[in-house]
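Suppose a colleague, Dr. K., hands you the sequence of a protein chain of 296 amino acids and asks what its three-dimensional shape might be. Before reaching for any lab equipment, you can write down a predicted structure in C-alpha cell form. Begin with the sequence itself:
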Amino acid sequence: MRIRTIKPEFFTHEGLFEAEQETKLPIRIAFAGLWCVADREGRFKWEPRRIGVQILPYDAIDFSRVLHALTTRGFIVKYRVNDAWFGFIPSFSKHQVINNRESDSVLPGFEENTTITEEIDASGTREARDDHAGQGEGKGREGNKEGKGKEGRVDLESSPNAAFEELKTRIGGWFKRRESTVWSPKEIKALKDVIALKTPPEDIDALEARYLSGNPYLRRDIITLLNNWNTEIDRAKQPTAQPSLNHGQPSDPIARRNSLLGDDVAEQQAEAARISRAKDEAAMRRFEATGLTPWD
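The predicted structure, expressed as C-alpha cells, is then:
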C-alpha cells in the first residue's frame, strides 16, 4: 500500500455516489483504496480477495463485486497479458503526484489497441456506463447515451440517468453554464425532483424556446427555475402575444416588481409588511396603556 492524495472534488463526485446507491457497495472508499494499491502507473494485479483484505479488512464483502461495478462504469479497466489479469486506473496519472523515490512499475502496461480486455456482463450491478470515467477522481469520457428516440430525445421512464444528464445539459445551456461546472447539491436535488414530474417533451421544448428567446422576464438562476418549474412551464405554454407597454406585466409598479421577482420574494415582502404593522400596533397599545394622549 502506498500514500496517495485525494482532491476535494472526489467527495462530490456524482457518478461514484450513484454507483453506491445502485449497488449498495462501498464504491467510493474502495476506489480511493485502489489508488493506494496501484503502483506509480496506476496498475495493480487483479486479485480481488487480497485487495479486499487490504482495503476493507473488516467488511464482509465480496470485493470482486466492487471491482466489477467499477469496471462496468469505466472507472477502472481489467486487462490480460499472457495468462495473468491486471487492473488499470485511467485517471490515476492525472490526479496523483508520485514521489520520485517510489519504485518503477514492474507490471505490464495496458495498451488499448493491443492488450486483451475482458468482455464484462454488467447485469450483475446495472447497465454499463462510462460517462464519468477518467475525469476528476474517476470522472471520464462522455459515452454514447442510450434510450434516445428518432430525434435524439430521451425517454424519461426507460432511461432515467440519460434523461437526467440530457436535461442537466439543456438547462445549463439556457444559462450559458459550462458542462464542466459542478452543480450544487441543492441544484442536483431540485433537478431530480423535476425529472420525477415527467414533464412532456413538448413542454420542455416550449420552455427552452422561451429561455433562448431573449425574453428579459426570466428566472435569473438555475435553482430558482427548478424550484418554480411548473410555473415556468405554464408561462411557456401561454400565447406569445404581448401588450405594447408592459409586455404582459401588471401596470402597478409594485405589482410588476413582485411579478418579476417571483412568488417567493413577493411572499417574503408581504410577510415583512405584516410584521411591521404588528410592531406599530404593539407600540400604539403600549402608548395607550400610559393614559397619555398625543397632545399631552
